[in-house]
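User: Quick sanity check before I run a bigger batch. Here is a single chain. Can you write out its predicted 3D structure?
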Amino acid sequence: MSQEVENTPHTSESAQSLAVPTSESARQKRRIASLEEKLQSLESGREAKQREINYYVSKGRAIRHIVSLFNSIEDLIAENDQRCDSDELDENLTIDQEHLQVGYITLNQALPWFHSRASEVEYDEYSEMLKVCLPLRQGADAARGDDTSKLKSLVAGWLNRKFKPTPPIDPDDKNCRGFINDACGRLLCPTKLDWNDPRVKAGIRDHADGYVVTEMSWPAFLYEKYTADQDNLEEGLFKSSLLIQAFKAIFTSPSFAKEVTGDGDGANVTENCRRAKNLDRKVKTHLRFAISSVTLWRSIDGDFNYIPFWQTIVDFFEQPPGRLAQQKVDRLLAWWTRKIFGTSRHAELTDGAKAKMSVNALARQRAQMDDALFDSE
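Assistant: Done. Predicted structure follows.
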């Protein structure tokens, strides 16, 4: 018995716990509070990350509007990087490479922070840069989808009112558009062909020799009154009322697209010429897609390739062959500025004319009354 007592371990005072007794309920509440704090921190981080993603998505919407309708951001970056690594002269580069580089420059004009951030990124941070490109691309493609969807129904209403086709164009069904529809076919038909000729209609619909419609022919919907002078193809080009309606519907409001005969009602800003040049070139491609029978966005529509069509329009504005052509482009952009944004003669007012206006007249009258009161006192 005494042996068992001797073998029993004894706990010394130094080995005893120093914990102050606390109730189980209090300890559980503190654990819950700690977990809630960690959860709140995680949720706050997710909210901040989502705000960042939403920011990049919103900025990305401008890419399809003013940078490039088809090229990806990664392709633009790759082209600029290749030029930095290469000693090749610019005159040895292809037209496609030129378009990519111009797109990269325009991208950095639209997003001034992009180039510096892409240049300073370290190797191990490159994946983070790609994460920036993803929401930018999502925003870009979402904007293009919104624009094509908007024009899909609006164009049907415009054409039904203008041409009164029988049966009317279904705003929800694109399968009834394109060359199988008389009104749409009239607008998509190359200007060198007469859509009113039954042989032309049949030839285009059958893809017969001499009637194949490609991006190398200007379609009628680009021209004022939808007709072109074959001896002066630049006259009236990019001046159709349908183009103005499409531009206003996408970049202002569908309600503004109803009025196209007069000048715009907006303020005339000096940068609007540049803005019109950047924006209206994409409208032409979107409008062609809206009139066609293609149901999903893609770059090829039968024999018609949208990519070189869009690039040809870009080159028309950005690479005129000479001084006279540049003057005509400037006049065309001024015409677009007036049609979309309106005109203003505010800058032409003289100081004398401004002094006679009621705002300044009231200021003078109030000052005179104060002076008269002061003198009487």
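The longest helix spans residues 126-163.

User: Great, the batch can go ahead then.
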